[in-house]
Design brief:
CATH architecture of chain A: Alpha-Beta Complex
Radius of gyration of chain A: 21 Å
Low-confidence stretches of chain B: none
Largest sheet of chain B: 2 strands, antiparallel
Mean pLDDT of chain B: 92
Number of helices of chain A: 15
Number of helices of chain B: 3
Radius of gyration of chain B: 22 Å
Mean pLDDT of chain A: 97
Distance between the termini of chain B: 42 Å
Low-confidence stretches of chain A: none
Order of helices and strands of chain B: HHHEE
Structural class of chain B: mainly alpha
Oligomer: heterodimer
CATH class of chain A: Alpha Beta
Largest interface: A-B, 72 and 52 residues
Number of domains of chain A: 1
Strand content of chain A: 5-15%
Distance between the termini of chain A: 11 Å
Helix content of chain B: 25-40%
CATH superfamily of chain A: Amidase signature (AS) domain
Largest sheet of chain A: 8 strands, mixed
Helix content of chain A: 25-40%
Strand order of the largest sheet of chain B: 1-2
């Protein structure tokens, strides 16, 4: 049953071949059996899941089913879930029971989705390896010595090991696409503003975006249908029509113009990963696409600019964790300043502290113009590169990650080397564009992702382009032997 | 630029973040290396470039000045470390 895509499970539920109760129990059993090897869940909501599953079956019996009714999924532990611990993988929120549902959670629940639990992640989504979690690292199901990527590493590992048919994730600098690549699943970061940020614990508000993590592009389309949409409670949500993302999945790719940025194929790219990506691009030529060499000359600015913008916004967003109204409070504070400083010093992990400090420095008196303003201008240059490219091409392709992952602990002592591994994903966040990573091959037994970048609000085309490839290949259908 | 211990302590104070004495050397070293990465920005040709705050340059939406939310103080204070009569308790600010 767990070898099935979300789409196939949806059909099995509709045909009465399986009930949501049976399906949900099956996945809960898989989590109990296999998650000790992965640590992909922080919280498993067993009882609530069974209650939701029975309600979904009743809904279906009453003729009120949607394509997602009764489908169990997992939520990244960054989404507020009413009455359920929402920790953001931080000691700071270890005791936080969210008093409301995030819009993404509420919309999926309204579509009938069952929540299996909350997945592990880098603390406050700051990391590319899932090693900064207060609850310990997640192992990659393909090779448990390796990281699953981050920050949505728990969601990626859970879907890759088929402990859930699909999961939600968030992507501020690559946090959906990079773990999707390293775990061999499909991960979509929608256009900034497409999916509501309300109830999604804020990291860098001008970059954060939620999206689906699934086995296939078709599954991602089904989930995005329920996740997307304008939300008046998110002040940067975009009021634009939401298409049916499944409608154009099968559109032929004849004449599709694919841009290949030379900056994405430079000396920083692992040779085997490069060969996998080239083979995938050759497959697209067979499907009728034409290739166009393009340049994104300001790509090299994206990491430096990101490490100003994201920490600056994080230092502001995370100032709310002060030990007063919710979250961790230090023992026996001497005075108010001691309460603030020790609650924050004890409640946050090392990487979160570093980013708060960098952001505080960049925003401090006398440095604003040289750092934050300069980075916002660099952001414009990065966006202008993409705008120019999309005058010539329909989508842009390249690797998601410069390599097929790294071992647990390998980069833990050197944050900058970890930051540099996000070179191909971060510019997409800086521009606010949609991007998807799909499995395209293997390198030394570990998955390699192809990244496809689209123009603003062109997720339907990204999903179409990804789906056509998945009709011709079976990389997306492979799962690690230990979890078969 | 290389940060010194005093710089780090000053930034940590601004951020209201306590660093344990044994965290300071590694923090100083790593912040210096991150700032080295960020320094590459200074070479970017940004003269006359408008700063970008939102990918589609959206402006802040306004809403009608009407009450739309209901009072949920009790629900929201259930997760507070310490409250009394609807107020959050902290150590004495004025002796």
């Amino acid at each position: 049953m767990h070898n099935q895509t979300l789409k196939a499970l949806s059909e099995a539920l509709a045909n009465g071949q399986v009930s949501s109760e049976e399906l949900t129990r099956h996945y809960l059993e898989r989590i109990a059996q296999h998650d000790p090897q992965l640590n992909s869940f922080i919280t498993v909501t067993q009882e609530q899941a069974m209650t939701q599953a029975r309600a979904a079956d009743q809904h279906r019996a009453a003729g009120k089913a949607t394509p997602l009714t009764g489908i169990p999924i997992a939520h990244k532990d960054i989404f507020c879930t009413q009455g359920v611990k929402t920790s953001c993988a931080s000691r700071m929120l270890d005791n936080f029971i969210a008093p409301y549902d995030a819009t993404v959670v509420a919309q999926l629940a309204a579509a009938g989705v069952v929540t299996l639990g909350k997945t592990n992640m880098d603390e406050f989504a700051m990391g590319s390896s899932n090693e900064t979690s207060f609850y310990g690292p997640v192992n990659n199901p393909w090779d448990t010595d390796y990281v699953p990527g981050g920050s949505s590493g728990g969601s990626a590992a859970a879907v890759a090991a088929r402990l859930a048919p699909a999961a939600t994730g968030t992507d501020t600098g690559g946090s959906i696409r990079q773990p999707a690549s390293l775990c061999g699943i499909t991960g979509l970061k929608p256009t900034y503003g497409r999916v509501s940020r309300w109830g999604m614990i804020a990291f860098a508000s001008s970059l954060d975006q939620a999206g689906p993590m699934t086995q296939t592009a078709e599954d991602a389309a089904l989930l995005l249908n329920a996740m997307a949409g304008f939300d008046h409670r998110d002040s940067t949500s975009t009021d634009i029509e939401v298409p049916d993302f499944t409608a154009d999945l099968n559109r032929p790719l004849d004449g599709l113009r694919i841009g290949l940025p030379k900056e994405f194929f430079d000396q920083g790219l692992d040779a085997e990963v490069g060969a996998v990506v080239q083979a995938a691009i050759a497959q697209y030529e067979k499907l009728g696409a034409t290739l166009v060499d393009i340049e994104l000359p300001n790509t090299h600015l994206s990491i430096p600019a990101y490490y100003v913008v994201a920490p600056a916004e994080a230092s502001s967003n995370l100032s709310r964790y002060d030990g007063v109204r919710f979250g961790y409070r230090c023992a026996d504070p001497m005075d108010l300043e001691d309460l603030y400083k020790r609650s924050r010093g004890e409640g946050f992990g090392d990487e979160v502290k570093r980013r708060i400090l960098i952001g505080t420095y960049a925003l401090s008196a006398g440095y604003y113009d040289a750092y934050y303003l300069k980075a916002q201008k660099a952001r414009r240059l990065i966006k202008n590169d993409f705008d120019a490219a999309f005058q010539q091409v329909d989508v842009i392709m390249g690797p998601t990650s410069p390599n097929a992952g790294f071992k647990l602990g390998e980069k833990a002592a050197d944050p900058v080397s970890m930051y540099l591994s996000d070179i191909y994903t971060i510019s997409v966040n800086m521009a606010g564009l949609p991007g998807i990573s799909i499995p395209a091959g293997m390198s030394q037994g570990r998955p390699v992702g192809l990244q496809i970048i689209g123009n603003y609000f062109d997720e339907a085309r990204l999903l179409n382009v990804a789906h056509r490839y998945q009709q011709e290949t079976d990389w997306h259908a492979q799962l690690p032997a230990a979890f078969a | 630029m290389a940060l010194h211990k005093d710089d780090v302590l000053k930034i940590a104070h601004l951020a209201r973040l306590q660093l344990a004495e044994d965290e300071i050397p590694a923090t100083t070293e790593r912040l210096t290396s991150i700032l080295g990465l960020i320094e590459q920005l200074q070479a970017a040709p940004t003269e006359g470039v408008a700063p970008m705050a939102h990918p589609t340059d959206a402006i802040q939406r306004l809403r009608d000045d009407q009450v739309t939310e209901t009072n949920q103080r009790e629900a929201y204070q259930q997760i507070a470390p310490a409250v009394e009569d609807g107020l959050y308790l902290v150590p004495k600010v004025i002796e």
